[in-house]
Amino acid sequence: MTAVHDDSAPGARPHLTITDLSKSFGRFVALSGISFDIAEGEFVCFLGPSGCGKTTLLRAIAGLEVQSSGRIELAGRDISRLPPAERDFGIVFQSYALFPNLTVVRNIAYGLENRKLAACRTRACKDW
Ligand SMILES: Nc1ncnc2c1ncn2[C@@H]1O[C@H](COP(=O)(O)OP(=O)(O)OP(=O)(O)O)[C@@H](O)[C@H]1O
Ligand SMILES: [Mg+2]
Questions:
Q1: Which of 1, 75, 92, 106 could be bridged to 48 by S-S, CB 3.0 to 4.6 A?
Q2: Do residues 37 and 99 share a domain?
Q3: Do 15 and 69 share a structural domain?
Q4: Which atom of ligand 1 is nearest to the CA of 49?
Q5: How many separate domains does the chain show?
Q6: What pLDDT sits at residue 43?
Q7: pLDDT tens per residue, range 79-109
Q8: Distance from the alpha carbon of residue 53 to the mean position of ligand 1, in angstroms
Q9: Which atom of ligand 1 is nearest to the CA of 57?
Q10: Is 30:53 a contact under the CB 8 Å cutoff?
Q11: Residue 9 pLDDT more than 80?
């Protein structure tokens, strides 16, 4: 799996830090020793073939999956063992739970608008 970063905020303090994250399902190793930092506001894509662990990684960050080992820190706070509701993450799943009548951007904006995120942060979505 490859992480593609937007480097438009060089030198910014890491907001999300993943350290040596691993996840096994029984004897099957889905994630092994994943480490990276993401700055606040940075746009990052995880690329890789089907089954390489992209969704498993996102689920672990959101707390929907408990990692086998490793650490997840948000703004310097260890959130590795917190339940999903106590983390500040949402996932737009790739199927089933999408609104078929809305665009990709509108699907993503839906959850943000429901949380009454400041309009200035979702305005970009309204132009789509
Ligand atoms: N709950 C589970 N139990 C057992 N194996 C699982 C479970 N969830 C995922 N896996 C396995 O872990 C591996 C990674 O799956 P994952 O869904 O994270 O891949 P992905 O990169 O998101 O794939 P895709 O591009 O097809 O969405 C796959 O081999 C998958 O079968
Ligand atoms: Mg997936």
A1: 1
A2: no
A3: yes
A4: 25
A5: 2
A6: 87
A7: 999 999 999 888 888 777 889 999 888 888 8
A8: 6
A9: 18
A10: yes
A11: no
User: If you take atom 24 of ligand 1, which residue's CA is the nearest one?
Assistant: 50
Q: Is the dihedral of CA 102, 103, 105, 107 positive or negative?
A: positive
Tokens describing residue 36? 């990276």
Tell me which residue range forms the domain holding 97. Answer: 92-128
Do 81 and 55 fall within a single domain?
yes
Distance 54 CA to ligand 2 centre (A): 5
Residues 32 and 60 in one domain: yes
Residues 14-57 have pLDDT tens digits of 899 999 999 999 999 999 999 999 998 898 999 999 999 999 99
Do 15 and 50 fall within a single domain?
A: yes
Which strand (E) or helix (H) includes residue 38?
strand 28-39
Q: How far apart are CA 44 and CA 39, in angstroms?
A: 10
| Ligand 2 center to 53 CA (angstroms) | 7
H-helix or E-strand containing 58? helix 54-62
User: Measured in angstroms, how far is the CA atom of residue 30 from the centroid of ligand 1?
Assistant: 7
Residue type, 89: F
Tell me: pLDDT of 128 over 80.
no
Secondary structure class of 60 (helix, strand, coil) = helix
